[in-house]
């Protein structure tokens, strides 16, 4: 039996074969369920346009259902010497149904077959990440409400600036994640277009029905140009990566805040001992390792769009084997992103805040703008009021009331 869909009479050099297959055999198991979805839709379409009989379609669907069950039970594997999951599925159908199994590939190329499975995978993963992100947004808002109006020092240039609050800080990250969701939705919309039927990138002389497979697989629309359908290989992964990198940017920034705020020099927040780690020689240490790793993993994720750009930016239209490597980048990225979202969602509700963190005398100057504004409200011009308070600070005679009364949307307590 041939072990490659494209194999002719001459065998491929074993070293070259190993190099070109790469990590596909392990990565392909992630898209196996989605190849089944696409293959079922393709078989139904072939029957609809009478390229195969109804009986042949029933056999193919029966075989694909069998593979689906084997996959769920962890019993379907890529055999030794078989190039990828797509080959394994076709070989299974051929072994079981003979010539009927060979007909599953009519009207498609492995190029559009792989691309369609990857798009279905991307859609599914984006939906999962979206759900986890929405859960995290709710947690941030719940914590913001819980700690509403509790003051927190604000810093600019790492210098004491103005009063902030825990609700402002926490809701800021909720709002940032809401913007990240917009990118996730945009990425989903781009991936939600059917490429099946574009074959090797130039269409097919068979009378296939691409609108049928589009509806059958649950795509919102299709990539009309067969050439562009192939061009979305790499582009789809990149737009998904951009969405992931945006969420990663938010989580990384929050994690850095946590590492700072946990530091004894700040002492704004704390976490239970079981969420921190100790030192091998310093018995007093409570290290924020989980947030340092969140920061590190998310910083790596932020480099993903650039990696995909470097992989694909000098390629002309049409398929190139370079595209195989996009799987090695984007597939693990989704696993990392989901793990980071889960870990943060687990840790966040256990955040404890220091309600008295602004009582320290070093935060007196945080209230300087409040004192300037009081003078302005009494009728003094802003520039004169600014100078009056500045003179008091320079003379070491500044004594703030530490009273905050903000009313506009997005301010302390609002």
Oligomer: single chain
Q: CATH superfamily membership of the largest domain, which one?
A: Fumarase/aspartase (Central domain)
Query: Could you please say which CATH topology of the largest domain applies here?
Result: Fumarase C, Chain A, domain 2
Strand order of the largest sheet: 1-2
Class by SSE composition: mainly alpha
Approximate helicity band: 55-70%
How many E strands?
A: 6
Q: Give the H and E element order.
A: HHHHHHEEHEHEHEHHHEHH
Proper CATH architecture of the largest domain? Up-down Bundle
The low-confidence parts are none
Largest sheet: 2 strands, antiparallel
Name the overall outline.
elongated
Q: In CATH's first tier, which class of the largest domain applies?
A: Mainly Alpha
Query: What is the end-to-end distance?
Result: 70 Å
């Amino acid at each position: 039996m041939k072990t490659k869909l494209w194999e002719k009479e001459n065998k491929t050099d074993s070293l070259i074969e190993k190099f070109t297959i790469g990590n596909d055999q392990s990565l392909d198991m992630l898209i196996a369920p989605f190849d089944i979805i696409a293959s079922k839709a393709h078989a139904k379409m072939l029957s609809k346009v009478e390229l195969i009989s109804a009986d042949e379609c029933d056999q193919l669907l029966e075989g694909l259902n069998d593979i689906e069950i084997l996959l769920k039970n962890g019993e379907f594997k890529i055999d030794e010497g078989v190039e990828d999951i797509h080959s394994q599925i076709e070989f299974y159908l051929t072994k079981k149904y003979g010539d009927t199994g060979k007909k599953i590939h009519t009207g498609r190329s492995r190029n559009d077959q792989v691309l369609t499975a990857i798009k279905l995978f991307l859609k599914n993963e984006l939906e999962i990440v979206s759900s986890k992100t929405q859960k995290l947004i709710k947690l941030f808002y719940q914590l913001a409400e819980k700690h509403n109006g509790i003051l927190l020092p604000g810093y600019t240039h790492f210098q004491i600036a103005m009063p902030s609050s825990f609700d402002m800080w926490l809701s800021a990250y909720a709002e940032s994640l809401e913007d990240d969701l917009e990118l996730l939705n945009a990425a989903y919309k781009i991936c939600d277009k059917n490429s099946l039927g574009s074959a090797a990138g130039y269409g097919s002389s068979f009378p296939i029905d691409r609108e049928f497979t589009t509806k059958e697989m649950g795509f919102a629309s299709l990539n009309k140009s067969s050439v562009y359908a192939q061009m979305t290989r790499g582009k789809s992964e990149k737009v998904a990566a951009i969405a992931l990198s945006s969420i990663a940017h938010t989580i990384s920034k929050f994690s850095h805040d946590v590492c700072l705020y946990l530091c004894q020099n700040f002492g704004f927040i704390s976490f239970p001992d079981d969420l921190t780690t100790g030192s091998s020689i310093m018995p007093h240490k409570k290290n924020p390792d989980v947030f340092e790793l969140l920061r590190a993993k998310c910083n790596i994720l932020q480099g993903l769009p650039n990696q995909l750009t470097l992989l694909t930016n000098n390629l002309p239209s049409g398929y190139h084997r370079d595209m195989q490597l996009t799987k090695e980048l984007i597939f693990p990225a989704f696993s990392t992103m989901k793990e980071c979202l889960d870990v943060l969602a687990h840790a966040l509700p256990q955040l404890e805040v220091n309600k008295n963190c602004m009582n320290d005398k070093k935060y007196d100057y945080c209230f300087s703008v409040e004192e300037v504004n009081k003078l302005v409200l009494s009728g003094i011009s802003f520039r004169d009021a600014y100078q009056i308070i500045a003179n008091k600070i320079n003379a070491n005679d500044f004594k703030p009331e530490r009273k905050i009364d903000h009313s506009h949307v997005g301010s302390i307590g609002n």
